Amino acid sequence: KLASREFHPENTVIEIGDVRIGGGELVVMGGPCAVESAEQIDEIARLVKAAGGQVLRGGAFKPRTGPYSFQGVGVEGLIMMAEAGKKHGLLTITEVMTPEYVDICAEYADILQVGTRNMQNFDLLRKLGEVRKPVLLKRGFSATYDELLNAAEYILAGGNKDVMLCERGIRTFEGYTRNTLDLSAIPVLQQLSHLPVISDPSHGTGRRELVEPMTRASVAAGADGLIIEMHTDPDNSMTGDGVQSLFPDQFARLLRELEQLAPII
Ligand code: PEP
Ligand code: MN
């Protein structure tokens, strides 16, 4: 299989501008769950850059559990985020939910995210195989490693080699945390596959106070990068993810700590 370490013994390194993912340097993607306004995403981009992050995250299209919840600002959000990224010198990552929107998302964002709910949306995966933009593929919340790697295979089989895998927590019997961040996924996926592995301690725990320790744990487990939610006003965020979003000063402190941690590990 194309995703397997057997097929491709060397690590895949994804190069986007001067950012290298999977090449040994830790990449940090930070930003809000959802793009809410031009001012919001611009201010958060400034803070992500100042803290030392490389990629601005933000959803313009949000996969909400209920149909009446805020669904994202749509294409306008893609434009707002692209402008903020360009202005502050950050790459951007955003979620794409349907094959029809792949081209427009690819036009505005540097990395396309497949959400946990869409890991086995095979039409979407096939379409992503046709574009030449890196894809961050999130593990389905009930998916095995094998199912995740098979999902990646759909994208790779189409000719898109720039796929990174993301552990974002799985559903277990534990209800205290929103999900259980499966730290073993990081070394296991790196053993089975050559693709970079990114950890999402925000969705992986659902609790702000756990993001910092699980970020450190992810780095210790060998993650190639992190995707972390940060918001300037988490209590008033437009999705329910404010409770897991770091305040800007926490985000900055965490990245300073990682700078010291990464070379040791
Ligand atoms: C997100 O990144 O905001 C998101 C919706 O993630 P997930 O698909 O992991 O729930
Ligand atoms: Mn979110």
From TrEMBL:
This is 3-deoxy-7-phosphoheptulonate synthase. It comes from Paenibacillus hunanensis. The keyword Cell inner membrane does not apply. GO terms for molecular function: 3-deoxy-7-phosphoheptulonate synthase activity. Its EC number is 2.5.1.54. Keywords: Transferase. Residues 13-262 form the DAHP synthetase I/KDSA domain.
